[in-house]
Amino acid sequence: MIPRLQLIPDSASSISHEVNLFFGLMVILCSAVATGIAIFLIYSAVRYRRRDPNEMGSQRRNYIPAEVTWIALPFLFFMGMFAWGAKLYFEIERPPDNTVNMYVVGRQWMWKFQHPEGQREINTLHIPVGRPVKLIMTSEDVIHSFFVPAFRTKQDVVPGRYETTWFEAIQPGKYHLFCAEYCGTKHSGMIGWIYAMNPDDYQRWLTEGAPEGSLASQGEKFFHQFGCSNCHHFDNAGRCPNLLNLYNHPVQIGGGETVLADDGYIRESILDPNAKIVYGYQPNIMPNFTGQISEEQLVALISYIKALSPSPGTQQPSSSGTTPKNYGVQKGIAGPGATSISGSHLEQR
Length: 349
Ligand code: CUA
Description:
The strands form 3 sheets. Strands 3-2-1-5-8 form a 5-stranded mixed sheet, with helices on one face. It has a 5-stranded mixed sheet with strand order 4-10-9-6-7. The chain is built from 8 helices and 12 strands. Among the domains are: 100-207, Cupredoxins -  blue copper proteins (Immunoglobulin-like), CATH 2.60.40.420; 215-342, Cytochrome c-like domain (Cytochrome Bc1 Complex, Chain D, domain 2, Orthogonal Bundle), CATH 1.10.760. Helix 1 runs antiparallel to helix 2 and helix 4 packs across helix 7 (295-307). By secondary structure, it is of the alpha+beta class. Helices cover 32% and strands 18% of the residues. Bound molecules: dinuclear copper ion (CUA).
């Protein structure tokens, strides 16, 4: 069987049609300009060729209106394309506020996905149709590139930092996922599928089992296992900063600077705590976790810290002890009270 020759991949995301249009117009405009120049070049070479060995070049002045036209028109056309391209770029780069966040870890040679509800997948990712999905991605080894042609999504995944991208699938289906950066002998095998599902099917899929609990509750276990809870109390009485309501809030650090406590900041603060010490706290109290913790454990811990910052309207935690009760009412997210409910409280030392 000869596979279908496909010049343009499926269009299955909210931006793919505009990207198609932009790309198509770019091709037409560039071909038109290139063809025009080629035709004029050939015409001039024939029309103004040297007819006699003794012929001298003409001293004729430039024709100003023609020069203005061929400078101004292409300039306007291409600046227009630039403006449109910039608008499209910002749309692609800036995720909307109401995203479903998934964590992606690339490694030689597979894609690992973690849902906030706790599901883990390898080389397959299930997503709901009609909801923007944000991917927070990192690599365990070398640079990979997350490429879903049908979504017009391509983002390099770099070790040691988080890269984000987002898309919104607009029709259910199964779409190819590639690694688009040569990353070793089995680079071509670092492929998978994205399953875009109707919201109902997606909900059903989600309930079909997350044996380890939500990502945040896994993170809570690590929070106790790694001894974080010994110093990070929820009442400002610990030796280390209170992590309640930290996520995505500004933090004042030594030197008067203010940073946003996003995924990248929390990651850095776990791996290299002395990099940015919160104002009023001492350095060298928290151990360095570089090499002690896997990327998956990191994203679980970050999810837990994120769950400690409930969105407005949800129940606020009490601030009287290290493990406030009755917290974590949001579906799929466990707060500090969750382990005591499940009876697996792991605080040690
Ligand atoms: Cu990973 Cu190519």
